[in-house]
Amino acid sequence: MMCRVLLLLLVVLVARASLATTQSGDARQLRFRADTRTFKIVQFTDQHYGEGEDVAWGRQQDINSTRVMRSVLHHETPDLVVYTGDQLTGNNIHDNATSYWRELLAPTLAANLSWAFVFGNHDDMPLQPGHPQHGLGSDTSRAQLLAFDNQFPGSLSFDENPALPGVTNFHLNIKHSTGNGSTPLFFFDSGGGTLPEVVHEAQVDWYRSLPSTSPGIAFMHIPLQQYTTAIASGEGCFGMHHDDVTPQARDTGLFRAFVDKSDVQAVFVGHNHGNDWCCSLSGLWLCYGRHT
Ligand SMILES: *[C@@H]1O[C@H](CO)[C@@H](O)[C@H](O)[C@H]1NC(C)=O
Ligand SMILES: *[C@@H]1O[C@H](CO)[C@@H](O)[C@H](O)[C@H]1NC(C)=O
Ligand SMILES: *[C@@H]1O[C@H](CO)[C@@H](O)[C@H](O)[C@H]1NC(C)=O
Ligand SMILES: CC(=O)N[C@H]1CO[C@H](CO)[C@@H](O)[C@@H]1O
């Protein structure tokens, strides 16, 4: 039970999230709760809204996902929700990806919470060749999905450096309840769909260029190659391991950068649905969020 709770939530150090009202300046300022000095994050991942939309189990699966998220948010009252990719199965969706995105957000909107997300390999995956509507321009791009998400006041994701590969590369700071310090949350677009499945070297350079602060958490969809090492020879492993680790296409040095900068204490990913384990490797927790 303890493991399940740990895997659904990451309890970092901090204050109550200030509820964002715009996309600029202080609106993105998250804070540790002053009373408990905690900051609770719920991770949701791999909901695959729109998968099998033409068949009954597809719709039922979406309804079930919504029910699970509503229930988790009701019981946990987090300060922030983080979605770690494959929110949609773009390659099954005819022409209404944003309607599914709205469905995805419904529980978080109803709970009046802020959220951040990264893209996975399915969110903008084109319709399969041979699909009756393939090539008709109905596919929804990463940029379009982000723009749709950004219309809501609680949306905190942004394209911090548009020159980089991918769209959801950004960081947020959680202000400490006392003093001037903050704890960072880093978000990486690990590609897939219309992009190679990797956090590119340019994204790693960008991360290295950010000033180091107290250790926070990193989120991406596709696991780093070190996840394979971690489950074989990492320390303190716990949780379910029912899927192979299918990591990024190559090691672009992000793990090394995390270790060198010491401002990330844990990495949380999705992608391999049967895994919800955490293992420690070189002092860094590498964790999965299973399949919400
Ligand atoms: C939806 O949830 C119900 C109740 O838990 C379960 O019986 C059913 O198999 C689920 N359907 C799908 C498609 O996941
Ligand atoms: C998206 O379109 C499909 C096909 O027309 C439909 O079955 C489905 O209900 C729609 N989904 C949403 C969330 O609007
Ligand atoms: C916080 O920053 C302000 C302005 O830079 C400074 O005056 C103050 O001493 C700092 N407080 C702490 C606790 O470091
Ligand atoms: C994150 C979020 O949706 N915040 C909203 C919570 O409710 C207040 C009052 O209705 C809104 O002003 C916030 O934008």
From TrEMBL:
It comes from the Eukaryota. GO terms for cellular component: cytoplasm. Residues 1-17 form the signal peptide. Transmembrane segments: none annotated. Residues 39-274 form the Calcineurin-like phosphoesterase domain. Keywords: Signal. One of its GO terms (molecular function) is hydrolase activity, acting on ester bonds. InterPro entries: Calcineurin-like_PHP, Metallo-depent_PP-like. This is Calcineurin-like phosphoesterase domain-containing protein.
